[in-house]
Write a structure and sequence with these properties.
By secondary structure, the chain is of the alpha+beta class. The protein has 4 domains: 98 residues, Distorted Sandwich (Calcium-transporting ATPase, cytoplasmic transduction domain A), CATH 2.70.150; 254 residues, Calcium-transporting ATPase, transmembrane domain (Up-down Bundle), CATH 1.20.1110.10; 152 residues, Rossmann fold; 185 residues, Calcium-transporting ATPase, cytoplasmic domain N (3-Layer(aba) Sandwich), CATH 3.40.1110.10. Helix content is 48%, strand content 19%. Strands 10, 11, 12, 13, 16, 17, 18, 19, 20, 21 and 22 form an 11-stranded mixed β-sheet that branches. The protein has an 8-stranded mixed β-sheet with strand order 8-28-27-26-9-23-25-24, sandwiched between helices. Strands 1, 2, 3, 4, 5, 6 and 7 form a 7-stranded antiparallel β-sheet that branches. Helix 25 runs antiparallel to helix 31. The chain is elongated and about 125 Å long. About 1% of the residues have low confidence.
Amino acid sequence: MRQFDDAISITVAIIIVVTVAFVQEYRSEKSLEELGKLVPPECHCIREGNLEHRLARELVPGDTVCLSVGERVPADLRLVEASDLCVDESSLTGETSPCSKSTLPQPASSNGDIASRSNIAFMGTLVRCGRAKGIVIGTGENSEFGEVFKMMQAEEAPKTPLQKSMDLLGKQLSLYSFGIIGVIMLVGWLQGKKLLDMFTIGVSLAVAAIPEGLPIVVTVTLALGVMRMVKKRAIIKKLPIVETLGCCNVICSDKTGTLTKNEMTVTQLFTSDGLHAEVTGVGYNGAGDVLVDGEIIHGFSCPSVSKIVEVGCVCNDSVIRNQNLLGRPTEGALIALAMKMGLEGLQQDFVRLEELPFSSEQKWMSVRCVHRTLQDKPAVYFLKGAYEQVIRLCSCYNSRGSSLPLTPQQRELYQQQISYMGSAGLRVLGFASGSELGSLTFLGLVGIIDPPRSGVKEAIGKLINSGVAIKMITGDSQETAVSIASRLGLYSKGSRCLSGDEVDHLDLQQLSSIVSRIAVFYRASPRHKLKIVKSLQNIGAVVAMTGDGVNDAVALKAADIGVAMGRTGTDVCKEAADMILVDDDFQTIMSAIEEGKGIYNNIKNFVRFQLSTSIAALTLISLATLMNFPNPLNAMQILWINIIMDGPPAQSLGVEPVDQDVIRQPPRNVRDSILTRSLLSKVLLSAFIIVCGTLFVFWRELQDNVITPRDTTMTFTCFVFFDMFNALSSRSQTRLVYELGFCSNRTFCFSVLGSIMGQLLVIYFPPLQSVFQTESLYFTDLLFLVSLTSSVCIVSEAVKVLERWRGSQRSPPASDCFHEV
């Protein structure tokens, strides 16, 4: 009736489990709610020949829907009319550039590939330019977006390594403890001891031996880790995820918006007369310079470059307002280039007379215009597009202001430059101008790329050096994906890449056999990403998946750790994730991994302390019973030891500052039990010292063969003091107590002092003396007990010194531990 501490511990543990289950269910519902936010509440629908405003949820297959710039597609539509239609599908496919759409039928072989279905507008995607009409072919869960969420709902979040370790440890401790307790009760009863007394001792030992305080300590430790991560701009949505990061050995990362900025940027120019120009700065803010031979050019100081910029700025339908792009990202990159040269006002200098819009068939756009101040002059064509198509319309090339006939040598020069830019992952555009479309003057080439985020390369290097493998999964082309991966240090000469189609043709076992050697997955869809994550988990990897788009949501939920970008991530992605990077800083993942390692180490410290106490208590009673000694501890004393074992001193080990020795270690193997051979040896050594010391005190006091309150008080106090010194040495597995500092963990200091004060009250406070059957001890008794019980700390510290010396004699372990899983 007095086991209030155990009742509270069990109640709290039940509340935690129920709360986690509730939160999981709530997050699932929130994910479905966020799907609705991506779909417009209203749309333009034609019914009975009339254009009507309808709620998107009222659409049914067969309805005709009209689309215009800036609108989100309310359902999957089969296009029947399309005029210069471009749709941003980056949140669904990962493609950076908007996809051109047409009404042309597609071959049956393209039905499974979202990116190649150019006659379908998918629900939730954004119309960047043009207009269209389409017939509804899929709504809600029957759309492509719906398929994503059906897969996400079907995915069960896997148990974390910590949960698996705790489950295994709890089962093992319970099995061994109940077996030993049963033997003790049986032997005691056969020796003629009272059955009720043996039953009381057995129940007390069961309470003390089974670590019901472990879930609470784990929860407190993880919660404090979450609070520390918030200060580092990372939101942890599930407590165990912090620890899981500590054993993460694979990160699967989406390219667009995660490793890159999702902002197309011009990085190189090549003029028709052979000038190379480098462009600095990223994004749509106009920051950066254009350099030729290391010198900054501005305005029209370099006519060959300025002419290209002029064409790119005038032959353009996009606008940048307050650093936000309205239009195509490629055109936004050209306007940003003009801003860097101070030529952004060129659009207003020309009057557009005619426009031939870009189409996926002709692959170029042109405008026929005149200068606003020179309208009496002949009109001129400005044209941009794919080099192969642009060069067909050219008969000359610009050379320092003069038009010279195009020669095979010039064409070969341009082709070599295109190959060079393409190998760097750049998207290449050609530019031309002239009075007639069939005989234009070629002006040059521009290379555009979606640049990597700042700091990502350094973070990736640190992660790889610490034993974490990183795999890039993207919907982009092979050239673009490999180029970005090479820039970030993810792809080298011996690396391999795999396409989404190739993933489709491999079963899970086949993919699992090669996935560890693949650095880049390109043209990947949500189902590919999910299959890749599962194949990695199939070979024992602990997988973190980062992303920011709806296309990542299913894989985020299936992964051991789902990491979403806070700024650029969609709401659906954030709801599916376990961790959100508030400032989209990829480097925060490194801090999270270090935090996870430190937290797991603190939990191991607690397990070491608690197990050594439990084993010591069980062994002490077992030996006393087998040797037919009186019980050295009564039931209430055992329960008091249990309070100390599960109480403040034990739980304060969970708030120990992160050990710097631990965070430098590679990720642990997920299959390793929390109770490693090294930890078990330390537990048994401490338990052995505690049992030997306590039995020695009990034997020393029992010289008259008559057990008295003094005998049990000395034995009881000896055991408690052993516990306090054991807790002191358990603060770190590698660092000595004096290196940690006695006051570096004030919570621990106050907890130990409180426990000692409580023990003194049990010994000297009369009401408690009667409850615990104790009596007052002399000061010399206390000094003797302190001297004896400090041995457990002294021996533990000596073991640390020995291990440190042995470690210095061995070579350091390999940093890449992924291949060990």
